[in-house]
Amino acid sequence: MRLAIRDKLTHALNGWVSRKFNSVLCSSPFSWTKVQKMITPPSETPKQASIGRLFAVGIDVGCEKCSISVLRPDKTVVIKPLEFTNDAQGYAFVLTKLESLGVIPAQITIGLEATGRYWENLYHYLARLGYNLILLHPVQTHQFAQRRGLRAKTDALDAGTIARVVLSDEARPAYVPGDLVATYRELVRLHSNLADEIGRYRNEIHALLFVIFPEYTQVFADPCRPTALSLLKLYPSRQAIAEVPIGILSAKLIELSNGHYGLKTAERLLTLSKKSASSGLASNARAQGLVILCDQLLHTQANLEILESEIAQLLQKDEAAKKLAEIPEFGPKTIAGLRAELGEVGRFTNCNQVVAYAGLDLTVKESGKWKGKVKLSKRGSGRLRRLLYMAALVSLRLKVSAFGDYYRELRKRGMNGRSALMAVMRKMLITAYSLLKNDSTFDPKKVWIGAKFVAKELPLVAQVA
Known about the structure:
It contains 21 helices and nine strands. The protein has helices spanning 2-26, 32-39, 46-50, 88-99, 120-128, 138-148, 155-167, 179-212, 216-219, 226-234, 238-242, 246-257, 263-274, 283-317, 319-324, 332-342, 351-357, 382-397, 402-412, 417-438, 444-447; strands spanning 55-60, 65-71, 77-85, 108-113, 132-136, 362-363, 366-367, 370-371, 375-376.
C-alpha cells in the first residue's frame, strides 16, 4: 500500500515539473535563467547570507556558576557547553572564548536568561564591550525546550537551548531598565517586602498574645500600636504584668503614651492579668518569642519610614512622576509603583502593548463546539496589576472620580462588578501611558464623558501610604 502511494506521488511530482519546464521553454522570450532557477537548488536567502559570519551564544546564568554554548546559524556547535564562575575571573574566561571566534563583537549575538539578579553584572559587562545582547524571559526558554522534546534539564542543555532561541525568530527580548527605573524598582519592591513582613509580624504577635495574655486586647484594641507594643517588650506575659507594682506600671504607661494612659489603665491591666484565661504553658519561651517579634516589628517599621523618605525624594525630582500626580486616584505609592513596574513607556508602540505587558489583556480558548470563558491572561507584571487594583478600589470610594463614574456607568450597562473593575484598571493604565507617552495633561472627560473633576490637593512629596 505504501509503495503504491509513493509511486503515485512520484508520478504526480514528475508531471508537475515537466509542465512547468515546458511552460518556460515555450515562453517568449526564451531565457535559460528561468530554467536554471528551476533546476538549481535554492541558495542562501539574503537573511542567511547576512548572518553567515554571526555566532549565537547562549549563557545559562546561575548564582555561582554559569554555562556557555556557541552555535553557528546552521545550528552546528562551535563551542560545546562550558562552565564558568559568575565573577570577574569567569567573565575573563568568557571573553577569551568569544575572542577566539575571530569576529568583531557586533557579529556575535548573546542570549542570557533573566534569572533573578544574577544576570545583571555579566549583561552590562558584555554590553560595554559592544556585543549584541538579548535578555530572555525564563518562560520563553522553557517553552522552547518543551517543543524540542528534551527529556532532561541541565545547565549545559539550557545554554544550548538559549542559543537556539537566539537563532530562531521567536526571541522576544526582555526589558532592561535604566538607572532611574532600576532605582524605583529597588526601593518600591523593598518597600512592598517590608510591608508584607510587618503584616506577618503583626499576625504572629496577635496569635502569640492570644495564648499568653488573651485579655490584653480588652485594654489595647490593637496590641501593635506604639504604646501597647513598648509595654509588651517590658512585660511580655500576664505573669510579668501581675507582678509589677501598680505605681511602677502606671508611671511606665504615662511615660510611654505621653500621658494618654495612666492609673486607670494600669489598674485594669492588673485586674485582667490576675483573672486571665491563659494556660501558662511554655510561658517563658513564649514571652521571649514575643519580645523578639516586637523588636523585629519596630525595627522593620523604622526601616520602612526610611524607605518612604527616599521614595518621596525620588518622586520630587522626577518629572514623569509629577505628570502622573495629576490623576487624583494615584497616591505617591501608586505613582512610584507605576514608575518602577511600567518603566520607560517609549518602548511601547500602542496602548494594547501596555495592557498586555500588565497582563490585563483577554484570552479566549475555543476548540470545535467547545467555547471557553474569556479571562485575563495575567501573563504580565503581577505587581503592576496589584497597584492598579488598589487604585481602582480607591476610585470607587471617592465622591468625585472620573474612574468611579466610569465604573458606575459600566454597571448600569449590565456589566458585572468584577469585569467593570478590570475595565477601570485598564482605563487607568491607558491613561497613565498616554500622559507619559504624549506629555499631555489629565482630562477626566477622556476617561468618561460625564465625569466631574476636582483638582488634586495632596502634595506629591507627602508620606508614601
